[in-house]
Every structure is written in structure tokens, then in C-alpha cells.
Amino acid sequence: MKTEYNHLRVKIYDIFITTIWLVTFFHLAYFVLFYIIFIPKLIIVEIFSLFIYAFIITIIKKNPHSLKIASYVFQVEVTLHTIICIYTLGFGAGFELLFLAFVLVNLFISIGYASITKFLTFLQVVLFILCYYIIPDTDILSSFWTKFLYVYHIIFICILAIIISYMLELANRLAYLNIQQDRDKLKDISEQDPLTKLSNRHALQNFISENLVNKNFALIIADIDDFKSVNDTFGHSVGDMVLVRIANMLKNIFRHEDFVCRWGGEEFLIIIHDVDKNSAVNIVKRVSHMLNTTSFKHNENIIKTTMTFGISYYDGYSELDLQKMIKHADDLLYKGKTTGKNKIMLD
């Protein structure tokens, strides 16, 4: 999902650059057109606009993260350019269509901050209305050039509409991925133990329903022996360190498709699926052996820990009663605790 998200962001960036180049080309055509008609004021305006677009392209090329600033400069340039052209040439040459087209673009696609974009859109609408009522009609253009510019703007808006529709499709997909990422983050938060980063109790039912329907598996409840003495002797921060180290050990030993969660306190619940009883016991023996031969260092102190395990097994055929399995594993764990600890208990 992250790869697709980044790919879409790159695509939107590329389309924005393409749009800027397209608008730059149309401004170059304006320059030639106004030079032919000879309207000095608008020739100067077009030279200024071309410098603005050269500036926009330069800052984006140097720093892709400046896309928001570039979009605001772009909107301001379009607004000022359109007002000056309408003021000089009057309505009828199609600049008013261009004005409204970019207002709609702002409403549908926001590259920058929403509040600023809304303000600029509102300002553009207000300016358009003021232009309509304040700017007088002018006959500076002949009928031919008025119609030519009107058709020219229709063509430009059609091309822009194609680009914007594609950009809107990408923006919608990007918004969808944003929502999915937010949902995944919320799910991770709700189903993850904040200390050990293992799954928690809430994640168990989802794991069972998604992975263990009609499959054999071993359910293990493991408890750190004499963990209270670690907290009492060295403090809770050291106890937390031991919990995190053991959690990381469990994550490294068990497969990605297995389930390892912090069940509560110093207890862990583990599910190994697609294994027989002997294989499950051998895996747990490996965990126990690793713990017995591993020590945790704190300052000058060496902390050694062991665990007791209770194993409940499901064959994949009989009726599944998860709560009964958990209780059975917990009873076996308790039996191991009361008969010496550091044991693996299985019926």
C-alpha cells in the first residue's frame, strides 16, 4: 500500500508539472498573438507571466516539496492575468471561461492547504463578479480575433478538463489510500501492546477467524517465572526491559504466520498452526532452552529468567471452543508453576 501511495504522489507531481508546462505553452501563444494584434500592455503581461512560470518550474525542480507554494503562485498568476486580460479586452474573448474553469479546478483538487485554497477560490469568485459589473465593454478586438480567442480558450479548457479528470481520479485514489492507512494505524493501535509491540487480546479473535478455521494448531500460554522478584529487585523499568527482550525473542523464534501476543502482565499467548503435538512441543522446548541459556544484563547485574508453558492442542476436526482451550492451557500452566516452574506442560 505504501508503494502505491508513493507512486500516486509521484504521478500527481508529474501531472502538475505537465499542467504548468501546458499553461506556459499557452502563455507563449498569447505572447505571439498579442504581438501580432499589437497590444503592448498584454505583451508585457505575458512576458511577466512567462517569468512566473519559469520561477514555478525552477522551484519545483529544486525542491519537489515546494509543490504547495508553487500551486499558490500558480493560482495568483492565473487570477491576476485573467483580470488584466478581461479589463483590457472586455468580456467575449473567453477569458471569463478560463477564470471559471480554474475556480472549479480549485474546488475539486487541492494540492495545498484547504483553508487557503478555499479563501483563494472565494476571492476569485468575488473578483469575477466585480469584473462583470465594473469592467466596461470594449471594442479593442475585431470580431475575428474575439472569436479566435474564444475558440482558443474552449480548446484549452477541454485539454485542461482531460488532465484534471485524470488528476481527480488519482487524488480520489490517494484519499482512499490515506483512509486505509489511517484505518490500519488505528487497527494496529487497538490490537497492539504498546510496550512489547506484540499483538494483544483484542487481536486474537480476528486471527482465529482469519487463519484457523478447520486447521490444527497448538495454543500455548507462557508465563515468566518469578517475574515479580525482578520488578521488586531492579525496578519496573528493568522489568519492562526484560519483557521487551523476551517479546523480541518470541517474535524471532516463531513464524510470521503464527500468533504471539502479550496476554497480560508477564503472560504471553502463542498459537502455532499447522503443527502436530510433537512439533509444537519441540518448538516450545527450543524457546525454553534459549531462555535458559540467555541472560539480561543491567549495570553490573546479570538477570536470568525462565518460563513455564501450558500447551492445549486442537486437531482441526472437533468443535472449536477457544475459551475452553485457553482455560485448559492456563490450568496446565498453573500446574507447572506449582510443581517446580520452568516446565512444559501438555496432556
Automatic annotation (TrEMBL):
The keyword Transmembrane helix applies. It holds the Pfam family GGDEF. It comes from the Bacteria. It catalyses: 2 GTP = 3',3'-c-di-GMP + 2 diphosphate. The chain crosses the membrane at residues 12-36, 42-60, 119-136, 148-168. SUPFAM superfamilies: Nucleotide cyclase. Its EC number is 2.7.7.65. Residues 215-347 form the GGDEF domain. The keyword Transmembrane applies. PROSITE patterns: GGDEF (PS50887). Keywords: Membrane, Transmembrane, Transmembrane helix. This is diguanylate cyclase. The lineage of its organism: Bacteria, Pseudomonadati, Campylobacterota, Epsilonproteobacteria, Campylobacterales.
